[in-house]
Amino acid sequence: MSRKPIIAANWKMHKGPxxxxxxxxxxxxxxxxxxxxxxxxAPAFVSLPAAKQALVNSDLVQLASQNCHFExxxxxxxxxxxxxxxxxxxxxxxxxxxxRRSIFGEDDGLINQKAQALHAASVxxxxxxxxxxxxxxxxQVESVLRRQLTDGLKGLDAANMLExxxxxxxxxxxxxxxxxxxxxxxxxxxxxxxxxxxxxxEDVAARIRxxxxxxxxxxxxxxxxxxxxxxxxxxxxxxxxxxxxxxxxKNAG
Length: 253
Ligand code: PGA
Description:
The longest helix is centred in the last third of the chain and has 19 residues, at about 180-200. The chain is globular and about 45 Å long. The chain has about 250 residues and is of the alpha/beta class. It starts with 5 loop residues before the first strand and ends with a helix. Strands 1-2-3-4-5-6-7-8 form an eight-stranded parallel beta barrel, surrounded by six helices. The protein has twelve helices and eight strands. Bound molecules: 2-phosphoglycolic acid (PGA). 2-phosphoglycolic acid binds near residues 174, 214, 215 and 236.
């Protein structure tokens, strides 16, 4: 089963509208007219409209937001609804990033509400999972991943899952310069695919794309991507520079 790789840039709280446009113009020149991988940019909320505008002539790059609220509207000060994101033209929404979990207290139940709301609106979720260093040291990688998948994806069906991307991001590898070894990544990805098979069937397991995230750089992309169950990358720090992100996209192809 061949799965088209998907490389996503998670800009976190970097790049306002002007810098987002500057990146896109430079990236556009570097990447050319075609790519063997799907490319997704996730700017901050306020930079999404400018990014969409800058991408008006691009068939190559899709847009994601880094978060959403699960309700369609209401008294949720500071939150953004999926409908608002659709109005801008967002294709994907990242949910369950470890920074949202650890800094903003999001749990699997909340992530599940977002996943269900995204599917109801036909917007594709990128669902992040991953263990902390403590959990890895205590031999809990598989139990943590199983819990995050089972609780975070509850109520979704096979059709929903074919529109979903999973991002395995070991928390200890995010922003630390310490990448999981290709073997560690492959073990976690193989296990993730196995659990998805149990929950949603073998066809979904064979087709769903699982990204690796955590200190991905141009120099380690090809080796990570050569693992049989690694279908892409979710890139933080190294996605802020157009040259480095374009090299990651090329090396992943
Ligand atoms: P990093 O971040 O590439 O800077 O480690 C990845 C992420 O948090 O998605």
